[in-house]
Amino acid sequence: MKIGGRITVNAAGTKIALSANNHIYMMDIDGNNFVQVTESNDREVLPEFSPDGNYLLVGTDYTTTSSLSAIWRLKIIPADGNKYNVDPITENSPGVIPVIAHGDEVIQTASNRGMLWR
């Protein structure tokens, strides 16, 4: 399995989320219950737990723009261990929340440092 980016731990210290093989995976802090929690036809990256640990913010439709940056769309999924379709083309699974600003525009972000909740 190819680990491809951020590894993050929830605030309670009980769960880990990581990107590997172009998708997001979660597991218990002791390594048990390793499950894939996202699926799409694109690459998912940079998981970040919400402050309460109930959700994951993930980057979807990841596209490299230069050697130092990339763009992606933001989606929020429940951090419940179930698998969610976050594909930007097809209809998302129930429970997937696209991050949208000012009307219909899906937020795209660019960075090489990761994401955080505010």
| Computed Rg | 13 Å
Distance linking N and C termini = 32 Å
**Residue runs with pLDDT of under 50 for 5 or more positions:** none
Report the count of strand segments: 13
C-alpha geometry = globular
Mean pLDDT: 82
Helix content: under 10%
Task: Please provide the ordered H/E string of secondary-structure elements.
Answer: EEEEEEEEEEEEE
Tally of helical runs: 0
Largest pleated sheet: 5 strands, antiparallel
Strand content: over 45%
Instruction: Assign the structural class, choosing from mainly alpha, mainly beta, alpha/beta, alpha+beta, or little secondary structure.
Output: mainly beta
Key phrases:
about 120 residues; mainly beta; five-stranded antiparallel β-sheet; four-stranded antiparallel β-sheet; about 0% helix
Describe this structure in words.
The chain has 118 residues and is mainly β. It has strands at 3-9, 15-20, 23-28, 35-36, 38-39, 45-49, 55-64, 70-78, 84-85, 97-98, 100-101, 105-106, 108-110. Strands 6, 7, 8, 10 and 13 form a 5-stranded antiparallel β-sheet that branches. A 4-stranded antiparallel β-sheet has the order 1-2-3-4, with no helix packed on it. Strands 5-9 form a two-stranded parallel sheet. It is globular. The N and C termini lie far apart (32 Å).
